[in-house]
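[recover] target loaded
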């Protein structure tokens, strides 16, 4: 828990949306064709009880259970091919810009413009997301190099809370004086980790990139900026959302393409356990700041499931929030790992008036919850 005694602000945000999208109908048609082919090809083993039949998916179920109607894809090619079921992303040579750096740069350039900042004024770059496509050199250092930024950059991974935790680290760096102006970027390239052959999770994720500029109020010249009044983070270990993808797999002689190396979860348990944690987290944070819950004008919440968001805000407000109060973007974007709350922020903040309060909050894998209380300047 901390108080903003050094006037640290968010001075700009950037959102980059990939050009390709995949509707529930397209995704489900492809999954069902894959499942029917699998079931026909393995009919004897399924009848003998040696293999389980692949159940069929439904676009209506997906929309009702999750609120997701569509998702964006960095590369759509390959995802809907029933003999592939994963994106076909061309490999790039070491001297070419990496895919994630490309996504990061697109969002970063928008954020810099919004913040009215030149790269020469940035002195730290954080790339924070659910996965980075390699361990080193850091994607952040590649982005730093492309933008000609002096100073330092590093990558960090905190799954669903990568974006909010990065904002908190940026806040602390500016408050402590170890950086003057920080660019925090979330290139969420989730599609390579989605198991498009799994009925229960094939619909959940989409690709996107968000970026945010954090600096001292004394240097801020942007039109829309927010005092960071308070930050709060918590983690609590859970295996209910997991991916075993990692560099040790080679030494373990395990199958690098096995299902457990992709995103998998106990969705029901996550729902049940995370909602009360998130609601209590926000409630106690606001209470510690003597902020009445009803005085918060905007809730930029993590976007994993519309029913989770409704339940959390109902617990807080005692009523369902309007879409203006708690914007939902997951109908178009799906779950974008850590970027969801910042997509909501980027699309829904410019109408706020000076003094209006808002809360950014992420919740999910880890478990992890990260939140910031903001006030429009
Ligand atoms: N089509 C049709 N029917 C289905 C489907 C489908 N696609 N899927 C499930 N069903 C069926 C089930 O078989 C079940 O049938 P029955 O009642 O006969 O057993 C019925 O529908 C209900 O199934 P569930 O209980 O599984 O359904 P829920 O109502 O619980 O909804 C959800 C499933 C949508 C997954 C829901 O549980 C949920 O959203 N939970 C929370 C999930 C969450 O927040 N997860 C966090 C995600 S992690 C994250 O945000 C970042 C991680 C890092 C990034 C990873 C990038 C790849």
């Amino acid at each position: 828990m901390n108080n903003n005694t050094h006037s640290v602000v968010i001075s700009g945000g950037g959102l980059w949306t990939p050009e390709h999208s995949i509707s529930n109908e397209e995704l489900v048609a492809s999954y069902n064709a894959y499942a029917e082919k699998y079931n026909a090809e393995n009919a004897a083993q399924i009848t003998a009880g040696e293999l389980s039949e692949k159940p069929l998916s439904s676009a209506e179920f997906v929309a009702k259970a999750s609120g997701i109607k569509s998702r964006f894809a960095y590369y759509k090619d390959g995802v809907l091919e029933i003999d592939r079921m994963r994106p076909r992303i061309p490999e790039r040579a070491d001297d070419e810009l990496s895919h994630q750096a490309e996504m990061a740069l697109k969002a970063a350039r928008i954020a810099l413009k919004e913040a009215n900042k030149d790269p020469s004024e940035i002195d730290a770059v954080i790339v924070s997301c659910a996965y980075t496509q390699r361990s080193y050199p850091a994607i952040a250092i590649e982005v730093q190099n492309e933008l000609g930024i002096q100073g330092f950059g590093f990558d960090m991974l905190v799954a669903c809370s990568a974006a909010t935790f990065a904002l908190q680290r940026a806040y602390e760096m500016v408050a402590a004086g170890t950086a003057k102006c920080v660019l925090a970027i979330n290139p969420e390239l989730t599609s390579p980790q989605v198991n498009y052959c799994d009925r229960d999770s094939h619909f959940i994720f989409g690709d996107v990139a968000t970026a945010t500029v954090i600096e001292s109020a004394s240097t801020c010249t942007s039109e829309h900026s927010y005092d960071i009044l308070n930050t709060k983070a918590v983690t609590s270990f859970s295996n209910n959302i997991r991916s075993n993808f990692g560099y040790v797999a080679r030494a373990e002689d395990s199958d690098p393409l096995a299902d457990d190396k992709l995103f998998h979860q106990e969705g029901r348990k996550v729902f049940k356990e995370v909602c009360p944690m998130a609601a209590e987290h926000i409630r106690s944070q606001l209470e510690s700041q003597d902020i009445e819950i009803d005085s918060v004008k905007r809730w930029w919440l993590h976007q994993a499931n519309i029913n989770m968001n409704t339940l959390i805000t109902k617990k807080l407000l005692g009523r369902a929030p309007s879409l203006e109060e708690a914007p939902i973007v997951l109908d178009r974007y799906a779950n974008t790992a850590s970027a969801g709350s910042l997509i909501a922020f980027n699309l829904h903040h410019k109408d706020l008036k000076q003094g209006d309060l808002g809360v950014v909050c992420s919740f999910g894998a880890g478990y992890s919850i990260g939140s910031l209380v903001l006030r429009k300047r």
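[recover] notes: Residues 267-288 form the longest helix (22 residues).
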